[in-house]
Amino acid sequence: MRGFRWPPPPDGGPRTWGPGPGGPRTGRPALPEPETELVDTPHGVSLERLVTGVGDPVTVFAHGLGNGIATTRPFGSGVTGRRIFFQFRGHGRSDSPPGPWNYLDLARDLRAVADLGGATRAFGASLGAGALCRLLAESPARFEKLVFFLPAVLDTPRGEVARTRLTGLLDAVADGDAHALAEVVSLELPPSVRNTPAGWAYLRQRLDQLLRDGLAPGLAGLPGQAPLDDAGALAAVTAPALVIGCVDDDLHPVAVAEQLAAALPAATLHVYDRPAVLWTERADLRERVSSFLNG
Predict the structure, then answer these.
(1) Local structure of 200: helix, strand or coil
(2) Is the pLDDT of residue 292 over 70?
(3) Cβ atoms of residues 96 and 218 within 8 Å
């Protein structure tokens, strides 16, 4: 396969390589961004929020670094009750107070959104999983059910490969360098999807969002931090938890998912056998999350 190219072909797909006429021509990128609102929080940071669904229970969804509402919405598609999606500080239209920031700051964002919306259940992906861990260390009984998707870090900072990749993402956004940003974001795609119409559609959407909204400089220190000093701080969390990991993911080592599941007294661990599960196991993943939260 030829190397990655940017900008893409005008038609958004490959010309002389990739799937042929009978190959798949559509992909599953993040859902389009809907109309959102800004909400004030008790700690003085306005956060971008989207509320969907009706009734109880209420679930709050926390996204990963450089992601946001659009990338967490698919996880809630089969979840009953109200669903609250939001952007952490420094993402989207949320405020960017003076930095640098740490996981305690992110936990405050998550707690505020959950409290304002009356959320009793929480979903955290990657960075959001870390923020959720920090919140639970201080308030172990805050939620009745918990889902941790691809936790990236617990009580030890990320490894060099992950820090380098995340720093590259932040630098490319700060520089407005579409080519460098596309190179980094393309690593989120499985090799079979790169240089296909599905891959280009995903890249275009991600780049449009990142170059439009940017990522605040206060986020730069987070790749070198851990949310907890000791995973033992989660021993008092008795809520049922689902921890989801996958093998061979540079940003989300399966060992972190295993450590988190071991630290939570009522956790169930599920590990997928290949990375890029949002592309390779999307239907199973959504069903697994919704069945756990709705059960």
Answers:
(1) helix
(2) yes
(3) yes
Which DSSP state fits 269? E
Percent of the chain with pLDDT over 90: 80
> Long-range contact list for 254-261, CB < 8 A, 24+ apart?
256/151, 256/152, 256/153, 256/154, 257/148, 257/150, 257/151, 259/154, 259/231, 260/129, 260/133, 260/148, 260/151, 260/154, 260/231, 260/234
pLDDT of residue 194: 86
Contact between 99 and 217 (Cβ < 8 Å): yes
Query: Please, what's the b/e burial string for 239-270 (b: 16 or more CB within 10 A of its CB; e: otherwise)?
Result: bbbbbbbbeebebbbbebbebbbebbeebebe
Q: Are 101 and 80 in contact (CB under 8 A)?
A: no
Phi, psi of 20 (to 5 degrees): -80, -165
Q: Is the dihedral of CA 115, 118, 123, 125 positive or negative?
A: negative
8 A C-beta contact, residue 249 and residue 278: no
- Residue 76 is classified by DSSP as G
Tokens 């890029």 sit on residue? 276
Residue 167, φ and ψ in degrees, nearest 5: -65, -40
- The values of phi and psi at residue 109, to 5°, are -60, -50
The count of residues in the chain is 295
Beta bridge partners of 91: 215
Q: What is the dihedral of CA 31, 35, 36, 38, to 10 degrees?
A: 150
Burial class (CB in 10 A: 0-12, 13-18, 19+), 15: exposed
Task: Give the tens place of pLDDT for each residue, 105-155.
Answer: 999 999 999 999 999 999 999 999 999 999 999 999 999 999 999 999 999
Q: What are phi and psi of 106, to 5 degrees?
A: -65, -40
The whole-angstrom separation of Cα 231 and Cα 15 is 50
Tokens read off for 126: 């990657």
* One-letter amino acid of 213: D
